[in-house]
Amino acid sequence: MTTTTPSTPEQRDDHRPSVHPGPSTPRWPRGARTIRYGGDYNPEQWPEAVWREDVALMRDAGVDLVSLGIFSWVLLEPRPGQYDFRGMDAVMDLLGDAGVDVDLGTPTAAPPAWLWDRYPDEHPVTRDGVVLGRGSRGLLSPSGPGYRAAAAAVTEQLAARYAGHPALAMWHVHNEYGAPISESYDVHSVRAFRAWLAERYGSVEALNAAWGTTFWGQRYADWAEVDAPRTAATTVNQAQRLDFARFTSDALLACYTAERDVIRQYTPDLAVTTNFMATNCPSLDYWKWAREVDVVANDHYLAAERTDNHVLLSMDADLTRSLAGGRPWMLMEHSTSAVNWQPRNLAKRPGELGRNSLAHLGRGADAVMFFQFRASRTGAEKFHSAMLPHAGADSRVWREVVGLGADLGRLAEVRDSRVPARVAVLWDWESSWAQDLEWRPSVDLRHRERTEAWYAALWRRGVTIDFRHPSHDLSAYDLVVAPASYLLRAQDGAALTRYVDGGGHLVVSFGSGLVDEHDAVHPGGFPGPLADVLGLRVEEFLPFRDGETGTLASGGTGRFWADDVVLEGAVPVDVFVDGRAAGQPAVTRNDRGTGSAWYVSTALDDGTLDAFVGDVLVAAGIAGDLLPEGVETVERVGEDTRWRFLFNHGDGAVELPDGLAAGTDVLGVLDDHGDVRVLPPGAAAVLASEV
């Protein structure tokens, strides 16, 4: 954070993401030059006799990297300051002798009982004032000095002991920050929040201006009067809640960087990371986090009951690659089959394990890992699938695990290649925090719903996208889509305008450009800094009733939302012909400079959205025909070779169009029928060709 004290909050806006996404000093796990393969290993749950069996099975499956020690704090430090590394020593040596590298975890996501007892004032507190107890997983207060000191101490003991161990390939700090503990309302967090605000704003007067505290008589005269935004009689100041979300992400990031910096004192050349949950951890601003890890790592679990979960998998993988700045990343966790924490934990169908894994690989992952190696017999995750299930090695899941290891070996040359993209989709965690607060114009104004809809439309045409923050340099992309830029800074709106003037093509969905970084409506109304580039202004929102639709001149329908639009240069492309928005533009286009900007004021039905996306791609000079239903494609490109990944998520065989069928079938999956190549149901294929 900056240490100067400018006169206005806008001048202190130093919390924006870097224009250069991705790790600042990218590294990779030391060791084998392969697609790394493995998973979490928790040998403490088993007698030592099982360990050797596990290591032998790892070698059979091609496992060369395991995450170790993530939940082992109480075993390593059974009493304060008393350490016992005998078990860890034995496992590290056993794995090292077998040629299995270790991603060594710091155990700080599972504080021991003695730590909870020692610091009762550091127990996390919910917004409703409930003090959380122990017996689960997760940290104490992220701002608790006792927790932070103890975490640093056990991390230093690990780093000092294993810095020179030959099995150590990288470091894994904590586990899934933000889950299950993100924001906390304990006394230490409140003090830290006040200090964070003082550094951000410099004075109480600047804070009052940013938060609009003249409304409802909320003005503050002293920092001591400022509390965390606890549950109150009605809606709490939304700018305050937005800042508390920013603070929470920063507080957790400080926990990570403290442990990372301890580790770097002992192993400065080894990669240090923590596992993200890219699209599924709403409390962390991963654009900021990505700059602090040496390699981006991600955990992904299917939403089992959603029939489009394979599309969401691709979206998550694309966001992870984007956080990595296009560089290779690690799939640190996913499941071989069912998980244990969803309402209905559906088992994966035969072949889905490998198809999911190769989909991540196709979108940039150079490591494929699972939770966990051997299924647990006890505890909360005993019904969670594993590489080695309760059924043992004589099981379908294990055979598929072994088969995947062999496939990854055949695909080793893919390592270090890149995933090209000509389309960017804007994604901003701060905007989502603001949009998800109370008292918005409609509960249907949801950032995640719109992002998924636009992503799926591009996915159905085989168009690969990068995610970008509105502040990033977008000049390399032919098309930029803003599906949910509810919060948009004036300077970022100006940059999008310059992007269009310079020849770019921009698509903006409804609900964008409504507020600034303090959750205040932009001067001049809606859509704020996008009004000029879109060539229109919005006089009033026209949200729909639940289930209501409006018919469009094109024959399609619009749902959820419409706007009372005044055209100021833009021309209508499609118009509502009935309903509450009759006569209003549903889609507009504004040509300016050498580019163009479209505005979509409603949620188009899938068919209409597909057709519109096709038209925009043509305007942007991007090929993107609709693919056969259920077929997915993505490319990775190396110096001399292009690999096209093809997936059939359907139950029937698919004849591949000519444009998708060329190349050497690396995995021997396709059925060749003369001049026609057929992708079998549920199959994943990789076609290699010269660049």
From TrEMBL:
<dbReference type="GO" id="GO:0004565">
    <property type="term" value="F:beta-galactosidase activity"/>
</dbReference>
<dbReference type="InterPro" id="IPR003476">
    <property type="entry name" value="Glyco_hydro_42"/>
</dbReference>
<feature type="domain" description="Beta-galactosidase trimerisation">
    <location>
        <begin position="421"/>
        <end position="622"/>
    </location>
</feature>
<dbReference type="Pfam" id="PF08532">
    <property type="entry name" value="Glyco_hydro_42M"/>
</dbReference>
<feature type="region of interest" description="Disordered">
    <location>
        <begin position="1"/>
        <end position="32"/>
    </location>
</feature>
<protein>
    <recommendedName>
        <fullName>Beta-galactosidase</fullName>
        <ecNumber>3.2.1.23</ecNumber>
    </recommendedName>
</protein>
<feature type="binding site">
    <location>
        <position position="175"/>
    </location>
    <ligand>
        <name>substrate</name>
    </ligand>
</feature>
<keyword id="KW-0378">Hydrolase</keyword>
<feature type="binding site">
    <location>
        <position position="137"/>
    </location>
    <ligand>
        <name>substrate</name>
    </ligand>
</feature>
<feature type="active site" description="Proton donor">
    <location>
        <position position="176"/>
    </location>
</feature>
<dbReference type="GO" id="GO:0009341">
    <property type="term" value="C:beta-galactosidase complex"/>
</dbReference>
<dbReference type="InterPro" id="IPR013738">
    <property type="entry name" value="Beta_galactosidase_Trimer"/>
</dbReference>
<feature type="active site" description="Nucleophile">
    <location>
        <position position="333"/>
    </location>
</feature>
<dbReference type="Pfam" id="PF02449">
    <property type="entry name" value="Glyco_hydro_42"/>
</dbReference>
<feature type="domain" description="Glycoside hydrolase family 42 N-terminal">
    <location>
        <begin position="40"/>
        <end position="409"/>
    </location>
</feature>
<dbReference type="InterPro" id="IPR017853">
    <property type="entry name" value="GH"/>
</dbReference>
<dbReference type="InterPro" id="IPR013780">
    <property type="entry name" value="Glyco_hydro_b"/>
</dbReference>
<dbReference type="InterPro" id="IPR029062">
    <property type="entry name" value="Class_I_gatase-like"/>
</dbReference>
<feature type="binding site">
    <location>
        <position position="341"/>
    </location>
    <ligand>
        <name>substrate</name>
    </ligand>
</feature>
<dbReference type="InterPro" id="IPR013529">
    <property type="entry name" value="Glyco_hydro_42_N"/>
</dbReference>
<comment type="similarity">
    <text>Belongs to the glycosyl hydrolase 42 family.</text>
</comment>
<keyword id="KW-0326">Glycosidase</keyword>
<dbReference type="GO" id="GO:0005975">
    <property type="term" value="P:carbohydrate metabolic process"/>
</dbReference>
